[in-house]
Specification:
Length: 177
């Protein structure tokens, strides 16, 4: 039987609960799902590629058919290189549709046998985006429930490096004063 590998490409800066919701849905319908982080030298991301990869790996460790990778160049070329036959993308609202349709049709023009599959995240994430999470975190608002705890902690460390110093080292006993 044919096994279907899909890629889920994106910037993931940072990964959110909406991304995780889509990964969970994708892992249910594809045999293999590769979360593919774009290496984009033009963008100045908040999190390095290494940090985003580490966060996504931690977030997806319970999904046995999900892996995380990075790529540059065209998404369709990367998909071909790893033998993927589908691209997974999320659509939250009508506003996403035009951009996603344009990208899907352009990818189809470039590689006609690669299908784009759209899935909808849970309604509670329909207003969620990495851009808004970055903005809220940078301006000191609460991002509780919008990103996994691990990402929330990494965002806090980014915004306030002193926060990292205050955290107890696991397993290390606090000295009595
Ligand atoms: O999370 P994003 O930023 O919405 O993801 C956009 C992404 C990475 C899927 C898109 O920019 C992309 O595919 N870039 C790779 C270059 C490419 O293939 N461009 C042509 C797209 S039709």
């Amino acid at each position: 039987m044919k096994r279907v590998t899909a890629i889920y490409p994106g910037s993931f800066d940072p990964p959110t609960n909406g991304h995780l919701d889509l990964i969970a849905r994708g892992s249910n319908i594809f045999d293999e799902l590769v979360v593919a982080i774009l290496r984009n030298p033009e963008k100045d991301p908040l999190f390095s590629l290494h940090e985003r990869r580490a966060m996504l790996e931690a977030m997806t460790q319970d999904y046995k058919n999900v892996s995380v990778d990075t790529f540059d160049g065209l998404t369709v070329n990367y998909a071909e290189k790893i033998g993927a036959s589908a691209i997974l993308r999320g659509i939250r609202a009508i506003s996403d549709y035009e951009y996603e349709l344009q990208m899907a049709l352009m990818n189809r023009k470039l590689r006609p046998n690669l299908e784009t599959v759209f899935m909808m995240p849970a309604e509670k994430y329909s207003y969620l985006s990495s851009r808004l999470v970055r903005e809220i975190a940078q301006l000191g608002g609460s991002i509780e429930g919008l990103v996994p705890d691990l990402v929330q902690q990494k965002l806090r460390e980014k915004m306030d490096p002193a926060y990292k110093m205050e955290q107890p080292i696991p397993g290390k006993k606090k000295r009595k004063s």
